[in-house]
Amino acid sequence: MKCGIKVLLITLAIATTGMSAGALAAKAQVVQSQAETPAQTNAPAKTTGSNKAADNDSSRVSINSASAEDIARVMNGVGLKKAQAIVSYREEYGPFKTVDDLKQVPGMGSSLVERNLSHLTL
């Protein structure tokens, strides 16, 4: 009986040592591949910089003409429900004269509006 427990413990120790060695080898491969990738990714990073400028243009939305879905997609912290409240307010009271007029919409605080100023146009 004691011999069986010893064999089991030895087998378990060997198995966990093998797993640890495998994990270390996998980590070494990840570190090595990260060391190699900066030289390879420098060229694509430059092209994504120009794409980022294009994304900034498409991430702006007009609060006077955009749909609730577009507003919810672009504005940080605004879901579909608040976006629908913006559209409803616009339909009831007319177009917004300034972006700060969004603060009049129920549920839209000044911090939420200020956080999204770079995404909004009239």
UniProtKB/TrEMBL annotation:
Signal sequence region: 1-25
Region of interest called Disordered, as start-end residue ranges on this chain: 33-61
Residue ranges with Polar residues bias: 33-53
Record keywords: Repeat, Signal
Presence of keyword Signal: yes
Any GO CC annotation of this UniProt entry: type II protein secretion system complex
InterPro entries given in the database record: Competence_ComEA_HhH (IPR004509), Endo/Exo/Phosphatase_dom_1 (IPR051675), RuvA_2-like (IPR010994)
GO BP term, pick one: protein secretion by the type II secretion system
The protein's name: Uncharacterized protein YbaV
Organism per entry: Enterobacter cloacae
